[in-house]
Amino acid sequence: MRALFDEHGAFVCRSLRVLGVREQDLDDLLQEVFLVVYQRLHDYEERGSARAWLYSICTRVARAQRRRAWRRREEIRAELPEAAVEASQHQRVVDREALALGHELLERLPRDQRDVFWLYEVEEIPMAEIAQALGCPLQTAYSRLRKARERILTEVQLAASQEPDHA
Amino acid sequence: MRDDAPRRLKHDPGAPPALSRALDALRKGGDDRARLERVGARLGELLDAPPPIATSAGAAAYKGTVLKLIVGGLLLLAPLAWLMRGEESTKPVKPQPTELAQAQPRIGAPEPPKIASAPSAVLPAVAREQTPSALLGERAERKTSNVVAARARRAPTATRQIADAPSERSATDVAETPELDQGPVAAQEQQEPAAPKPEKAVAAVKPAATDTLPMPSEAQLLLAARKAMPDEPERALRLLSQHQKRFADGLFVPEREVLSIEALRSLGRSAEANVRLQQFKAQYPDSFHLRRLQR
Predict the structure, then answer these.
(1) I need a surface site. Which of A2, A123, A141, B286 has the fewest CB within 10 A?
(2) What is the pTM assigned to this prediction?
(3) For residues B285 and A48, what is the distance between their CA atoms, to the nearest angstrom?
């Protein structure tokens, strides 16, 4: 359990963010994820792939939280900028912009595609493990990845055409 | 395995630079070291605790789940017979959390006594020895005094409840959790001191039976409070007070206090909020929440 936390805690944080969890909720949900992990350690023994498995837990925890938060999304929008500024460094502004873009792009993907895209393109988890964690056939996972890429590339090109001189 | 997989975008020279940067930033993510330290500290002993099911027995027990589900289904088909002879339920080979998780929510159901007694009979010895409830119980006893002291005037019974029977509190909690969003819990709060009957039956026989569920329930209670905060701060406060009673030394004590202070403020009870803030400062002088509270 500690090994999982030490090794993959940061991954869980990233995943939760990608899943739309607010900064201010991250502590709680990170903790909740690992409480679930604790309860399901035996499941992990069975499945082997740690990160993909952790991600599947993240999706459930984040989804449950988002359902609750959805009803007050105006408030969330009001809070977000403030929370996002947390721990920011001036010299990291560019990184943060890139990060924000990354999150925005992921948010625009349908959930199924986003999961695959995130795990494959960003976390570089083998597709077989992703498919296993998401409970879908391998070919479906590839198909989602392809669609996600198309969509994201389109979005990026659109954004670039709208703000050509942004720098 | 990856040979057949499509090349990742990061290795694709044709990928737009903006996208590459975005993916790279996502890959790095934020700096979560401080967060991990905080949460790691909160998880505490749990991180080093043995899993709820002994690792070596875990796989076998997992495979046994299907069998047990079938047995459980048959038992449900003959509820009356089962009621007469509750010992039937001892047949499952190796009880484990899945089964407990199914059994517990029924504790609060209309016909609790027969259900409540059944899982207690099948409690795994393994679980008794290795539960987080036991750990939390220890933590409660160790830390409750200072956590609760600050709020003794608000929850004089909290220490006793937690120290006496953490798992029996969570048994109710499990039954209630699904209702949190609908609101009945808040109404139910007034009944809290009079614990539902089945709890005793459960706790008497299996003090650690709830090992798989209590802690998420704690989180859910807080999340429900947080959800209620914008529109119904009063209800949020009630949920938080409920949390305080049940989880006086829970894993989310600082968060509970932060939310409580915010709820009090939004209700215009600034004097109480300030008192609580001072207590919070004394208790958690290094808390990152302070920045938020002192704005």
Answers:
(1) B286
(2) 0.43
(3) 41
Give the model's pLDDT for residue B184. Answer: 40
The residues of chain A scoring below 70 in pLDDT are 42-48, 68-94, 160-167
Q: Write out pLDDT tens, residues B161-202.
A: 333 333 433 333 433 343 344 444 444 444 444 444 444 444
Q: What is the pLDDT of residue B54?
A: 44
- Please check whether residue B41 touches A, CB under 8 A: no
Percent of chain B with pLDDT over 70: 40
Chain B CB contacts of A99 below 8 Å: 22, 25-26, 28-30
Residues 6+ apart with CB under 8 A from A124: B8
- Yes or no, beta carbons of B36 and A9 under 8 Å apart: yes
> Is any Cβ of chain A less than 8 angstroms from the Cβ of B252?
yes
Tell me the chain A residues in contact with residue B16 when contact means C-beta distances shorter than 8 Å: 153, 156-157, 160
B239 interface with A at CB cutoff 8 Å: no
Tell me the shortest Cα–Cα distance from A18 to chain B, in angstroms. Answer: 9
Residues in chain A with CB shorter than 8 Å from the CB of B226 are: 68
B33-74 pLDDT per residue, tens: 888 888 888 777 777 776 654 444 444 444 444 444 444 444
| B8 with A124: Cβ contact below 8 A | yes
Chain A interface mutation, best of B2, B8, B20, B43, highest count of A Cβ atoms under 10 Å:
B43
pLDDT at A46: 55
A103 vs B contacts (CB less than 8 Å): 26
Burial environment of residue B282 by CB neighbours within 10 A (0 to 12, 13 to 18, 19 or more): exposed
Query: Under an 8 A CB cutoff, do B46 and A34 touch?
Result: yes
pLDDT digits (tens, 9 = 90+) for B226-236: 888 888 889 89
Q: Is the pLDDT of residue B85 over 70?
A: no
